[in-house]
Amino acid sequence: MSFLNKVRKNLPHIKHNTQLLFNNTGLCIKIISCTLSVCYFFSFWSKSSTVFGVTPGYLFPPSFWLWTPFTFCFFESHLWQVLLDIAVVAVCGKLIEPLWGELQVLVFFAIVNIGVALACALFYYTLYMFTWDPELLFSVHIRGLAGYLAGVTVAVKQIMPDSPVFDTPAGRINNRNVPLFTIFVSLILWLVGFVDGTKPTMVISGVLSSWVYLRFYQRHTNGTRGDMADNFTFASFFPVIVQPPISVLSNSVYSIFVKAGICRKTVRRVDIGSTPTGITVSLPGIRSQDMDRRKLLALKALNSRLIDSGNEAPRVPSSLDSERRDSVIISMGDSEQSAQVLSNDAAISSKTT
Prior knowledge:
mainly alpha, Rhomboid-like fold, disordered C terminus, membrane, Rhomboid-like_sf
């Protein structure tokens, strides 16, 4: 009874925070969250894991339970997993949906989850071929959004790679480190028995499925596909010290996939504009909205540093006011952002010399 009383007292606070979390989110995010909540009650049915979850032995021939890759992601076995799923889906709506649009978020959700289902099933089929243990095919039930949650970390790494998350004794964790950190945490939780063996498999499959889709296949509004940025390579997920050998291995695999026709060869082109305004470098796969977000963050950081340096600089004569009002045009990619920059140091050095 004491627990119920605490819940009743905190119910208005919980309701208020939930409304704040889902404010300005699209219909897709709300439908996914509601479906997760409703399907949790169906998970108490003893056969729900078999009927709605991905069972490797039933997904492929001769059974062909082809609906399970579309339903497994909505069924969780614990309430805390449902709450975590809903929270991450809502955060995804806050961070990613304004940049991608509601349709792209839905496509990302579907592709990552289907990729997780197929990758996990193939993994357990491979284990079965080495062990001949039928329990790997018929006793393993894959369900939940663990793979999609790991895929979201890859999308956040793509959009805001250098944003800090939290500090640890070993150093600061940025968004670029979160996917590998998520894999590491899932393995630790599996080793201590907190989660079953399907969760690390789903997390690894989610990271790989998300990266492959965002790297090579995501369609952008400017007609390009993927994101071939240097800070979004497969080796960038790992610490700097091990990136060179991983780059060699990943590039070799990529070359094999290109020859097999699975991936397209990366083509980088440079277009020199006919007007004398400058040079436009066009890199296919980098979406303008995502790049604009990075540009605005960089310009904001630059302006704040210049303002700080201007406050610390000594007072200059009034005759230099006109020179201080000079502006610098910062051109990044296909769009230009102009920032009014106070050139204190340059003006002082030119006068003093």
